[in-house]
Amino acid sequence: MVYVTVKQSPMYHQMSLEEFLFGGASEQPVLNQNMTNTRTYEFQELSEYMRRKLGVSTSGLIQRLAEFNAKTEQLRAKPRHDLYYEFYIPKKSGGLRKIDAPQPELMDALRELKTIFEENFHALYHTAAFAYIRHRSTVDAIKRHQSNESRWYAKYDLSNFFGSTTLDFILKMFAMIYPFSEVANDQTGYVELKKALELAILDGGLPQGTPISPIITNIMMIPVDYKISNALRDFNKQRYVYTRYADDFQVSSRYDFSFREVEQLIVSTLAEFGAPFTLNKQKTRYGSTAGRNFNLGLMVCNGDDGGVRITVGAEKKRRFKAMLSSFVLDTLHGKPWDINDVQVMEGHRNYYRMVEGETIDDIVNNIGKKYGVDILKMIKEQLSV
Length: 385
Prior knowledge:
Distance between the termini: 56 Å
Structural class: alpha+beta
Order of helices and strands: EHEHHHEEHHEHHHHHHEEHEEEEHHH
Strand content: 15-25%
Largest sheet: 4 strands, antiparallel
Radius of gyration: 23 Å
Number of strands: 11
């Protein structure tokens, strides 16, 4: 199988790849104008005619990889662990997550490889993927479910997604994904692609904390996302919405469904591709908009108008109010906050506004009126110091 993914232009109807490449879309009402969406096509094999129209120079890609490999040869002579430093960050579920961050020399090399994948290979992602993608966020992922008016949600987590992702699995998946498939199926190309990807591997897996690991996972998961997304379009005679945010899978429907059957579909699809990771079934969650239904840190609940509402949750808004009040009072008493703390608060405000802008603006305005200050001006002044 070969999977070809293209950016989805303004869509007038469900176009075939031939229409996308060769034209023919008629002037009909636009169905979808979201330019971050993509469309993936599955083929048994690509014809020579299709290859010519796609216009990728396999020899050019191989040459670019060879140049990169020659340029970074000195890095391969060094012990891999000497090229990283590690630290730990808290997990939302408790405990600590290890982060392996590249030293500057390796960081520059991995950034260059990422650029090669993006600009030379034109690497994309399946439209169901939302993590590590410009102009996409957790909010966008949940909004896709909201647009379906979904009332029932299942959440599935992969176990040790990055650490379990081996070089062999990456190469196996890349060999099915155009245009990496063209390079991987060439003897010289396979050697150069493998050599380039080896630089992104640490202790047999993908380290968290590098600029290349996220894009590698989004590329290699295209066939998995395609299979799951297509299977769920009419699974058990019911339509579902599927999104993936890194190692978090979200599946929703307007109606109650057997989340364990969907879980088994995901597990069997991963097994079909020989994935070295699977679901952590202990973390599977299922609920409806009638209760406390959190997905990707956001609550999806029934709105007062009878629709489906997305909110950051009452507790987060309570903490945000307390944070704003403390910031204002400390500033008025001549105790300005450290700039990093102000940036964190402003980050919360901007993110929460993406979810429920009017509510967050009201919170800021009400606290400002209470203390007789312009909070936004106050924030701007402290950030500009």
